[in-house]
């Protein structure tokens, strides 16, 4: 059997806001609430379950995306005023070009860094 990460819990301050932000960033739909979670199905194998019962904690979630998703996500970040950068722990509004692709880190208000990149390092 192949091992696949199926879901993970993301601790946030407001589960509905955080789920909608990621859904909008990636161009996917936020799913209806499931118990205490606000799920976002990222692809056929992975769901992120946003949970606000214990408060927010910073995190880092990295997504390999195609150019169209990358461009749409960066436009969304710019349009909504989200901070973004070429590297973690800085805000420079630059794109990195590691491994021949493009990459950015988009920061949500809970301190979560969503890394989007177009080439595998």
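-> sequence recovered:
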């Amino acid at each position: 059997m192949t091992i696949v990460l199926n879901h993970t819990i993301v601790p946030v301050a407001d589960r509905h806001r955080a789920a909608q932000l990621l859904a909008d960033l990636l161009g996917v739909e936020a799913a209806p609430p499931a118990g205490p979670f606000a799920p976002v199905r990222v692809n056929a194998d992975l769901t992120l379950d946003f949970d606000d019962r214990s408060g927010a904690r910073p995190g880092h979630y990295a997504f390999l995306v195609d150019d169209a998703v990358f461009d749409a996500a960066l436009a969304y970040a710019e349009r909504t005023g989200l901070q973004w950068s070429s590297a973690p722990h800085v805000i420079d509004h630059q794109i990195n070009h590691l491994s021949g692709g493009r990459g950015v880190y988009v920061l949500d208000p809970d301190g979560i860094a969503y890394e989007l990149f177009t080439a595998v390092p």
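The two ends are 26 Å apart (CA to CA).
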